[in-house]
Protein: RNA exonuclease 5
Amino acid sequence: MEPEQEKTGRLPRKGRKRRRVPNRLIRAPGVRRARWDLEDRQPEAKRARLSTILFAENCEVTHGQLCELLKYAVLGKSNVPKPRWCQLFHQNHLNSVVVFILQGMSQLHFYRFYLEFGFLRKAFKHKFRLPPPSSNFLADIIGLQNKETAGDLPKTIEGSLPSANSKASVNLQNDPIIQKYGSKKVGMIRCLLTKEEMKTFNFPLQGSPDCENFIPTKCNGSITDNSPLFGLDCEMCLTLRGRELTRISLVAEGGCCVMDELVKPDDKIVDYVTSFSGITKKILNPVTTKLKDVQRQLKALLPPDAVLVGHSLDQDLRALKMIHPYVIDTSLLYVREQGRRFKLKFLAKAILGKDIQCSNRAGHDATEDAATALELARYFLKYGPKKIAELNLEALASPQELQSAGQDPRNTREVVQHPNSVLECLDSVGKKLFFLTRETDHTELRSSGNCRTIKCLSNKEVFEQARMEIPLFPFSIVQFSFEPFSPLLTEEMNKRMRIKWTEMSTVYAGPFSKNCNLRALKRLFKSFGPIRSMTLVLETHQVQRPVTELTLDCDTLVNELERDSENRDTIYLSGVHDTFKQHLLQQSNLFLGLEAVILPKDLKSGKQKKYCFLKFKTFASAQRALHILTGKDWKLKGRHALTPRHLHAWLRGLPPESRRPPGLRVIPPPSEQEALQTLRADHPKIAAWRWSRKIGRLYQSLGPGTLCLILLPGTNSSHGSLSGLGLMGIKDEEESIVPSMGL
Structure:
């Protein structure tokens, strides 16, 4: 099995509006984009297509991010923000959206019965991990609150809001700020984010896998309500690595700016995003200050009990690559309904009466933004939650209310309300959602003007109804229900998976003489990639993988992994050196169709590893490049990739299997051994084979230009949770890779 592939993403074109995206989604360590593919390239034919490189760290996509994609698929960029974790080109050429939910199944199901899921693994080249589901998975992915799924559906987004000046129309008890903080004034400690909240909102934390190279501020003193506040804001640009720091401003509680530094990124800048950062090439050219310099300066400036204040502060700390335990985030302090956030510009106007980030300026002023966030925090502490709630910020955020209050709605484009759910998106364009599920499913989407729900007695009936109804609706959700693994069976399945993947990652070679040079032998094997361990056994004359029930299909699995649609266009190379990227770019004409160069780095040393992955647009391009790179001119070792990127993080999460001497027979866990002897029609292995084929038949019946998602939500119970898995593709886009399945 190859080492973990790093993640990468496509960069936006210059001049395009920058989205405030969590840094973990775009700053993948070691990733380099090919020079000829730095900008979005238009497809040859005008048809919808998805990007092949997902932005998500470890390829995990949250339920909220899925909702982003679904809303964008319905309305397009003119009405809702683009999804932050992938790219959907030519959305207006999408004809429909179909979501299949396999309730009760997880990522463990998919890889435990990988051979049985034949159609799904070969047809969909975009796969990603899903976090364990909440109590209402469906509500999460279409953007509804639980109370909405059980009751009436939300009305059209054109509905009016209560007057911001009429206190009688404001129910303070229902205000999210009152619900979180109460109505009385609170101390500064109450406004700090807890460790759990910091984890939820993606703040860098000590011990997090993606923060191993981050620097702690060493602020670990005793915190009190009188601890000093410091406003912080950073500006970033886009480099070949992703988003990197170009300016930092730190403002003390008295309003004095104690630090305002320009920073020169280490990597080549591909977009200064001047309209937001205010940074230009001319401004940054003479700068010599580096990230490590401002890290050292910030550590020296902050007292042990310093509290950092900012707006979406997680992004600033990740740009700084620093960890700080005491933070107040004004985008979370001023709590908003349904987990949304107010823009800093809006809060400055509505709370403080200040105009910031004005359109006549070249970008944002980091010092102004830091001071504004600090002032907003002090206002909250001075006047308390009740005063904030009485302002009725939700109403003020409405363009209609701003206009009635004498403000120009044209200056408030950043706070215009977007549809919150897929249902609202469909309703705004006069379309309906079709929801098909089983009677036993407790999820409720009551039929209304823009949603039709049908409940069936069995999965078979759901399948038959889907074949008839899906073509009639622009957006369909079809949910099948399966019995999840029992806790005992889940534990045993995990054990079997650990054994199987360990065996697949083990090479048996020999026999060798007692006088063989171990150092030379290890050097030979290391030329193919990193080695976890090597054991020399001299008491054998036959060298082969131990034959057990769990290892019989290892060779078959390796062959099928190579044919997996996500791996077909990717090649793995070993023996690359620091100059490989430059050499590759110099001869770019030899590697047409190259989409991404993934250069992993050692998380501790930061040095580039001696292997890489190259992602191509087509299998033919990958095959041609592999032939060139393993030839006499390049002299590299390589092959087509075997493991999808989302799989690595999941396999790392499995506890390591204890080492055992080669040849030792592994007895399958009794619980599953007994279960496999009585293969009922509803056994997971049979269900995987049967429903992969049935969904394949449904997929083949879809019209061209259909965005199709297959979601295995995962499971969540008192005995533990299992991560889910998502697969997606567009019917036209996938036609060239979907094999003949004999469906």
Q: What stands out?
A: The CA atoms of residues 217 and 299 lie 5 Å apart. The two ends are 31 Å apart (CA to CA). DSSP finds 28 helices and 24 strands in the chain.
